[in-house]
Design brief:
The protein is mostly beta strands. The chain is 13% helix and 34% strand. The protein is built from seven helices and 26 strands. The strands form six sheets. A six-stranded antiparallel sheet has the order 1-2-23-22-21-20, with no helix packed on it.
């Protein structure tokens, strides 16, 4: 970056070059969406999903025409060693296995006495019932093996996959001695690493994590009230199993007037921005509040792809129906991408993921029927799945490495599904495009003329200014 380029020009140039690279390198300009995206109702230049849902005769999960599911795991069934499959299925990630198989690592959000606890041989604390399991799913989407990968923890809610093939499982609790992140290696289950908390990542009500593979920085969300948005800068950035245990610095995001030292690279037009503040890992929530960091309502899902960290605030907004944010590390930019209202009919976003072809998929955790909602880089939305069984949340959305199978859980009773059908082909360029796309109009945050003028004056996008305005920054 040149020193005499202001931030507005940099963002414009960066957005143009990103789009050009995305379109040119992947052939998206000649992308035949009517065929590749398998959507009979899609307009030629706009993907609108896979069509209406078809009622499931079994009354479990409605999907579009051409898609089917298989229940591959249910709570109370038996694992390979005869132990019962634990209940309360939650966060999940998929890893490549042998012979085109997929290895799923799955959380169990358990605490206290429960009918089907996680029973491990090498627990963190034997009296506690939470933990993680793994499933080896073959190319025919049948489970070959199911086993415990960690145990003795509390309320393993979400987490995140690492670029090096392990799973970070998060405890969503403030109980003393807990509220930590643990690293799980599905190829070496119940090892000592699985029972050793990564203390420098903080003791708080953890929800989810995601890692920027370019830097090794870990981004974390907190499910509490208030919640804070954290990042962990590891001392060892080799991105190897166990490297996070070597410690690091925990920071929380704030919005402040930036000093000239911060703004010099972007010229003098930028006055406000995201500032990262070191916080005490033993009491990060308290420390973040004292230092004026951004208070969110209740942070949930997280996902990193294409240089963008996506996360959501499930009960934020005027109607407490939720928001989705994206943070772009390269420009240190926080944007409010989506804001739910009653009229746009999307309730309480929870787990999120980016599809292999570049759409953002959001799992709801609202009071009514919960669904999977898709949002496209072209500004469209569509419905992909709906829980017809009960009012329990859908959790743990993840795709196989091959991109041909989608896995999702119903939390209670614990059910894991494998779903397949005419999914679109992988498109990394379109994934990058999603990271810089304008949100679908009905879901975009409302931006007043005053906020728009502020954005222009400060060299921000309207979405960045909306994030600032919602969190109390002065809009002049």
């Amino acid at each position: 970056m040149t020193k005499n380029m202001n931030r507005r020009d940099f963002l414009k140039a960066g957005g143009l070059s990103t789009a050009a690279v995305a379109l040119g390198s992947t052939g998206l300009l000649s992308f035949n969406e009517s065929k590749a995206l398998a959507s009979p109702k899609a307009a030629r230049n706009s993907f609108r999903g896979y069509g209406p849902l078809v009622k499931d005769p079994g009354g479990v999960l409605d999907l579009p025409q051409g898609f089917q599911y298989r229940i591959i795991s249910e709570e109370g069934g038996l694992m390979a060693d005869g132990r019962p499959i634990p209940e309360k299925f939650d966060g999940m990630a998929a890893f490549p296995g042998k012979n085109n198989s997929t290895v799923l690592v799955r959380n169990h959000e358990l605490s206290g006495n429960t009918k089907y606890p996680v029973i491990g041989r090498n627990p963190y604390q034997r009296e506690h019932t939470g933990g993680t399991t793994a499933l080896v799913v073959d190319a025919n989407r049948k489970v070959q093996k199911e086993y415990v990968t960690s145990s003795g923890t509390i309320r393993n809610c979400a987490g995140g996959a690492t670029p090096w093939g392990t799973w970070l499982t998060c405890e969503e609790t403030l109980q003393e001695g807990h509220g930590y992140v643990f690293e799980i290696d599905p190829s070496d289950p119940e090892n000592n690493l699985s029972r050793t908390p990564i203390r420098d990542m903080g003791a708080f009500s953890h929800e989810a994590t995601a890692i920027d593979p370019a830097t090794g920085i870990v981004y974390l969300t907190e499910d509490a009230g208030p919640s804070y948005f954290y990042r962990f800068i590891p001392h060892d950035r080799s991105q190897r199993t166990g490297s996070l245990q070597k410690g690091g610095v925990l920071q929380a995001a704030a919005m402040e007037e930036m000093s000239m030292d911060h703004t010099s690279e972007f010229h003098s037009g930028q006055r406000f921005g995201v500032v990262w503040k070191d916080v005490d890992p033993e009491k990060p929530t308290l420390d973040a509040g004292r230092k004026g960091c951004i208070p969110f309502s209740r942070l949930e899902g997280a996902y990193f792809e294409g240089g963008v960290f996506w996360f959501d605030d499930t009960s934020a907004g005027d109607n407490n129906l939720g928001r989705v944010y994206r943070y772009i590390p390269a420009t240190n930019t926080l944007e409010l991408f989506y804001e739910s209202t009653e009229s746009n009919d999307l309730e309480m976003p929870d787990n999120i993921c980016l599809t292999p072809w570049g759409d953002l998929w959001i799992a709801e955790d609202g009071g009514g029927t919960d669904r999977i909602i898709g949002m496209t880089p072209e500004g469209e939305t569509y419905l992909f799945a709906e829980n017809r069984l009960n009012g329990s949340e859908l959790a743990g959305p993840t795709f196989s490495t091959q991109g041909d199978t989608f896995f999702i859980n119903i939390q209670t009773p614990g059910i894991t599904f494998a779903i397949w059908g005419p999914f679109a082909s992988k498109n990394t360029g379109r994934q990058r495009q999603m990271g810089h796309a304008v949100p679908p109009a009905p879901y975009a945050p409302k931006v007043s003329d005053k906020v728009s003028a502020f954005a222009e004056m400060e060299g921000m996008s309207a979405l960045e200014a909306a994030a600032f305005q919602r969190h109390g920054m002065p809009i002049l």
